[in-house]
Specification:
The protein is α+β, with helices and mostly antiparallel strands. The protein contains 5 helices and 14 strands. The strands form 2 sheets. Strands 1, 2, 3, 4, 5, 6, 7, 9, 12 and 14 form a 10-stranded mixed beta sheet that branches. Strands 8-13-10-11 form a 4-stranded antiparallel beta sheet, with no helix packed on it. Bound molecules: fe (ii) ion. The site of fe (ii) ion (FE2) has 4 residues, from loops. Fe (ii) ion binds next to loops.
């Protein structure tokens, strides 16, 4: 198949949509995917533990790899257009944003700045239950690997739950109130998730989305979600995604994030 024919043959289409998420398949044409795959192979990657994200992942998952963050409308490590193939994912996302406005709001109205960063999961690695910060209207992930198998794990899990109490924060866990810190601040739940466990098991059901190649998933802000561990059967097939967050238009992205409860 010629490159021009590849380009012409791709039309992103909504595969699934409900009150918690939107799934869009066939986001990018084959030649763009091939360039993105090369891009992923030459990125400087660091383990999330080394990047200081202590506790965002379980200790056993602290070897998950993260690449540089490119911003749309804002500079993190770089800004769109960065000149690199990640630009194509970001542009494709904006170009089809009308398809997922019900999930994360409208471009240039509810959000106009978003981030894009590569994340790689190896067999044995996943991500704990959490939800997006209140600074975001929602989040996205695009599956950039060339192959996946339904038995390789790595599914995005989404709880069918809305409006869980905001004081539980991003990880549904709060530090114990003590005499010197009586405010019981929300924190990462990697050492103690008893409160998160109680809260999430009140419902304890929802949807999964397989890490199908060339698939884009949008998650509505506030929806509890997790990533199932990639299974040993995946071998050297890493779960390679590009993803990020849609910043609410009212949020100043140049300031440190506001603590969840304040
Ligand atoms: Fe997330």
């Amino acid at each position: 198949m010629s490159k021009s024919k590849d380009k012409a043959s791709v039309t992103p289409k909504v595969t699934a949509q409900n009150e918690f998420f939107t799934v869009i398949d066939d986001l990018l044409p084959a030649d763009v995917r091939a360039r993105l795959w090369n891009y992923l192979q030459i990125q400087p990657l660091n383990s999330v533990g080394a990047l200081g994200m202590q506790g965002h992942w379980l200790l056993e998952d602290s070897g998950v790899l993260r690449g540089p963050t490119v911003g749309w409308g804002h500079t993190w490590d770089a800004q769109y257009p960065s000149g690199a193939p990640i630009d194509n994912v970001m542009k494709a996302l904006v170009d089809c944003s009308n398809l997922f406005a019900d999930t994360v709001g409208r471009y240039d109205v509810d959000w106009k700045i978003f981030s894009a960063m590569p994340t790689l999961y190896q067999p044995g690695q996943g991500l704990v239950w959490h939800r997006d910060s209140e600074d975001n209207t929602g989040s996205w992930a695009y599956y950039a690997h060339d192959r996946w198998n339904i038995e390789w794990g790595g599914e995005l899990l989404l709880a069918h739950a809305h409006d869980l109490p905001r004081e539980y924060g991003v990880y549904f866990h709060r530090l114990s109130a003590t005499s010197d810190r009586p405010e019981s601040l929300p924190w990462q739940a990697h050492l103690d998730n008893e409160d998160a466990n109680r809260l999430l098991l009140e419902g304890g059901f929802g949807s999964y989305v397989a890490a199908k190649p060339n698939r884009l998933v949008l998650i509505k802000g506030g929806t509890p979600h997790a990533i199932a561990k990639v299974r040993p059967a995946a071998g050297r097939h890493l779960r390679a995604s590009i993803g990020g967050f849609f910043k609410k238009t009212a949020v100043r992205v140049d300031l440190p994030p506001v603590p969840w409860t304040r």
